Amino acid sequence: xxxxxxxxxxxxxxxxxxxxxxxxxxxxxxxxxxxxxxxxxxxxxxxxxxxxxxxxxxxxxxxxxxxxxxxxxxxxxxxxxxxxxxxxxxxxxxxxxxxxxxxxxxxxxxxxxxxxxxxxxxxxxxxxxxxxxxxxxxxxxxxxxxxxxxxxxxxxxxxxxxxxxxxxxxxxxxxxxxxxxxxxxxxxxxxxxxxxxxxxxxxxxxxxxxxxxxxxxxxxxxxxxxxxxxxxxxxxxxxxxxxxxxxxxxxxxxxxxxxxxxxxxxxxxxxxxxxxxxxxxxxxxxxxxxxxxxxxxx
Length: 298
Description:
Elements: H1 5-17, H2 28-45, H3 48-65, E1 82-83, H4 84-98, H5 103-119, E2 120-121, E3 125-126, E4 129-130, H6 147-158, H7 164-177, H8 186-196, H9 203-219, E5 220-221, E6 226-227, H10 239-251, H11 256-268, H12 279-289
Antiparallel strand pairs: 1-4, 2-3, 5-6
Helix pairs in contact: 1-12, 2-3, 2-4, 2-12, 4-5, 4-6, 6-7, 8-9, 8-10, 10-11, 10-12
């Protein structure tokens, strides 16, 4: 597991100086990864200021993205809504903050109870995207391929007793689908690898870990050293998705050389688009260099 704290602090200073993050616009996925990062820095340095900043971040997410039910994504109004996988990652982040300040774990449990019955279609799947007010599925979206896996893992980590009913709903979906689920998109592969490391000996985790590594092996482009978007898109690459793969690979203790290679490649890579300076790229780069509380079992 990487632990390059000086590089992480340098990147954080760079973002703060340009008001990119955490003092920039709110986006729930980025903020979830950033919240885990701040807790990781607290664990590594013992400096309480990182916990204080983490609490400030939670309050800002609540203020800007909070809804009467759930938390919105943070997109432009016509595209905004609520993603279950973003909410699940935010629950995970709150849970990690809750290891130091327990009230945040309770908030994560409350959020799970609040959104679970809205997104779940029992014994069918978890709706991928809902409208901002959670009144209906977002037009054009169906079930998420990994959302029930994500919920199953995060709920169990938060509290297997308090969320027993919700866990059982997700367990049934995992049991129904894991044998025939094949992920081929870069970030999804990284995230399913990360999920498997919490319960590595369970059949769904063993199968998905082996299958996902085999697909990722087909997506490795060397030279120069990156994972492409899909097996059939060798030229398409994104920094933040590669950093998500990095976290997943470190979770399952695989391909350390490729983790180093992709980190090095994206340190210098510029697409020429405005998204090069997006917070999601640099925050997820930080978690690649310091996965920390994403890998609490290591």
